[in-house]
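Quick one, T. Sequence first:
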Amino acid sequence: MGGLHLGLVGLGRIGALHAANLATTAGVGRLTLADADGARARAVAAALPAGGARTAAVDVAVDVADDVDALLRSGVDGLVVAAGTAAHPALVRAGVDAGVPVLCEKPVALDAARSLEVLEHVAARGGVVRIGHQRRFDAGYREARRAFRAGELGWLHAVRALTCDAAPPPVAFLAGSGGLFRDCSVHDVDAVRWVTGREVVEVYARGSNNGDPAIGAVGDVDSAVALCTLDDGTLAVLSASRYNGAGHDVRLELQGSLGTVVAGMDASTAARSAEPGVAFPDGAPHATFADRFAAAFRAEVAAFVELVAGGTGAGGAGDDLCRLEDSLAASLVADAAQESLLTGAPVPVPPPGAVVRAGGRERAR
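Structure tokens:
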């Protein structure tokens, strides 16, 4: 059977989604899965499309490895990492040391200091690593970026980014997630940087806990807002919540001197108009991130497949995959937001380029 041989480690919600997408992506011939829970890996493998969703051009053989070492020894051409965040650094290093390109779910590590250590390891070995920020492949976000960069919006006076889950994940997950800004709003940070081309220089954050008190007991908040100042003075507001009962709501609004665009404002937006006679939005609200970004996730793994196959030239789909340096920049902002949340004071964000040049754990803090 022809096509690339890809490995996927970590088969929770996002890992199972990646497995289903990889199994139906043109150019993939074999998919090897691994998870700390072998039974879960076998269950995901058994549930993958077996003919119905495949075509003559997409016919993937699926097998299961006992662990990541066995997976890498099987001769994979590329590795997708979807395990828990704490496991990301070791798995990325393993893939790079094996000489294969890696796509790792965000964030690359629990904080910027540990992300920098991974970046230095990858750079020393000449590795190819990309980080999963699927909003870069969402049609609305891409159009917002195009409109702004084409000058259609004029200069920006405000950016508003929103990520609200319909319901919180298990508290056990939140306890090891690094906090709401690192786990959730880091997507918004990457989107703001990618769309505007600007850096965040200062963050002021506040949070609250009005839901399950167990979330506060593990040191997290269930809702938060961060005011970010960009390097050209533009203000960006990040808003996040674990309790958006209307559904999964993710949007990005760019307000400019000439016009305004909103990504994520479709018929399934998890909101309703209070104005009489206005029916929009009139579709069923998005229930989860997998529903909201289904097409973007498919496009993201397809771009990684292209990258693995050698599609690294300018203009290729792989160009939009998030690089380690950009992931580090987003982590610096998320770290600053978490610090501001604890101190109640604005926190400056160091320039990511300076952090990379300086190196070292203490300088990344």
